[in-house]
């Protein structure tokens, strides 16, 4: 079993946003955030707070765990050369 440090947060925000025909800016406004924040979340460069995650889930009418999930992180292959 992987340690917690090896877990990575993934999300389906881009997929849900496209399904609901929302731009990053539209979603950002709807949750009181910015387009840049949505972009960072979608790329996995920013882990949103619980509050932001719940707001996003509410906009899409989906459970938060359907949009955000913890998965096993990828191990570095640099040591195996």
Structure report:
By secondary structure, the chain is an alpha+beta fold. The chain is built from five helices and two strands; from the N terminus they run βαααααβ. The protein has a two-stranded antiparallel ribbon with strand order 1-2. Helix 2 (24-30) packs across helix 3 (35-43).
How do the strands line up in the largest sheet? 1-2
The DSSP helix count reads 5
* Largest pleated sheet: 2 strands, antiparallel
Strand element count:
2
Overall CATH architecture? Orthogonal Bundle
Low-confidence stretches: 76-81
Number of domains: 1
- What's the average pLDDT? 89
Ends: how far apart?
Answer: 25 Å
Q: Give me the CATH fold name.
A: 434 Repressor (Amino-terminal Domain)
The ordered string of helix (H) and strand (E) elements is EHHHHHE
């Amino acid at each position: 079993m992987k340690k917690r440090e090896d877990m990575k947060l993934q999300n389906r925000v881009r997929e849900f946003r496209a399904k609901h025909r929302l731009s990053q800016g539209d979603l950002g406004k709807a949750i009181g955030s910015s387009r840049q924040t949505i972009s960072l979340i979608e790329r996995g460069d920013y882990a949103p707070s619980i509050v932001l995650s719940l707001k996003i889930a509410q906009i899409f009418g989906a459970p938060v765990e359907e949009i955000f999930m913890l998965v096993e992180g990828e191990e570095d292959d640099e040591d195996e050369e």
